[in-house]
Design brief:
Distance between the termini of chain A: 32 Å
Strand content of chain A: under 5%
Number of domains of chain B: 1
Order of helices and strands of chain A: HHHHHHHHHHHHH
Low-confidence stretches of chain A: none
Strand order of the largest sheet of chain B: 5-6-7-3-8-9
Largest interface: A-B, 28 and 32 residues
Number of helices of chain A: 13
Strand content of chain B: 25-35%
Largest sheet of chain A: none
Mean pLDDT of chain B: 84
CATH architecture of chain B: 3-Layer(aba) Sandwich
CATH superfamily of chain B: P-loop containing nucleotide triphosphate hydrolases
Radius of gyration of chain A: 19 Å
CATH topology of chain B: Rossmann fold
Low-confidence stretches of chain B: none
Oligomer: heterodimer
CATH class of chain B: Alpha Beta
Number of strands of chain A: 0
Shape of chain A: globular
Number of strands of chain B: 9
Distance between the termini of chain B: 37 Å
Chain lengths: ~260, ~250
Amino acid sequence: MGKIKERLIVLYDKRELLEQLVRRDIRLKYRRSVLGYFWSIMNPLLIMIVLTAVFSNMFRYDIANFPIYLLIGRAMFDFLNEATHTGMWSIIGNAALIKKIYVPRYIFTLACVTSATVNFVFSLGAVVIVMIFTKTTPTWYLLLLPLTIVQLYVFCIGLAFFLAAATVFFRDVQYIYNALITAWMYLSALFYPAKMLPPNIYWLVSHFNPLFIYVEQARSFVLYGSMPEPHYLWIGILSAIISLVVGVETFRRTQDSFILYI
Amino acid sequence: MNDKIMIELKDATVRFNLATEKIDNLKEYFVKLAKRELLFQEFFALDNVSLTVKKGESWGIIGRNGSGKSTLLKLICGILKPYRGTVKTYGSIAPLIEIQAGFDGRLTARENIFLNGAILGHSREFMRGHFDEIINFAEIGNFIDVPIKNFSSGMSARLGFAIATVVNPEILVIDEVLSVGDITFQKNCVRRIKDMLENDTTLLYVSHSCNTVRWLCKNAIWLDKGKIVMAGDSDDVCTAYEKSVSS
């Protein structure tokens, strides 16, 4: 316990660097683009419009309020995607810096995930716009959404740490992960109703797919205006903790060797 | 000068594994594992190096290329961990190992000052307070909001040096960076280093120029193939080194 406290104190000490790195990512992301940060809202919005058109007209599903159903899932998936992909390269990409000055390596990965969170928060602006358009009435349950976001954030941190460490040693992790994330997207019922899955697959997905669980939590708070199924909350929190522990431990045990392989 | 120990190395050894340089994907790894070709070609960049540096001392580090000078600096800065032995430092370290390392070329000078300051552990208020001092020393007054990738090498070298020395670090570690930059820059740098030395800063200075080492540093250590050949008064060590190189 003492060691964890020690590490948190070091992290707090380095908060200035973390802030500077996140600011750097944010500044550079839309520099020289005309619409700038507007794209963080427009991007998910445009994709949602396309997907809604495709799925409402071509495949008829019985989903009430398909735009919000889709958009929340899409925003959360994009967050997971961006956080893990940028996090995966966070060590190799900052090799020049790591080799010249002593900086705690995890700061870079943490900065990537935090930058992705900033984007995610902006894309929630798109959700608000669509809620207004579809006349979705917000309930008090909406205030519980941060619970889900925190779980997702912690889960992404753990996963990003693991991927960052793995990619330093084995560059082909990126290809494996690309395949994995594509399959993951299709198995998370983002744009189709979950009940469409065959029963045993549905059982597996609703108990072992953290993305699906987080998206369902978010939908409960935003769309259905109710508490999500209890097992979604427990499994969600557990997944986040397991991911964090596995990711941090993998990273911590291998970080002294990073410099030899970047 | 007092007797406080700032840097202490005891039998420090840094070992690299040359064989695994080529394996960076899973297929290669498993193939080599199966063929039992995960060889270990040991390379000792530093071998049983022991050194004690006290507060206010100035040490030059000289040696042929590949003798382990940069590795020694990286060990002291905490970038590398020793395979054997111990490395202890007591005090804030400002490393100048390739000054432009902390810069992100896409950002402007102003943004880089804060980023670099944060990397070195300074708060934003601190950097704001010293902002003008940095700009003046680096003489980049008109270029504050220009992306650093558009700077000349001399300008970015000046800026890097200015940022790293803006606070009086207790230990200053310099790795052959003064060779970049014109005469005025080198004069300004040396002047600042001398000022810092008068304020009891401890200095580690890697160089190929024996003359600068003689002038700037009281002591010197001569490394060859990772081992210390000689350590002591900078004049003596430099003369011995020059003799061995010219013979």
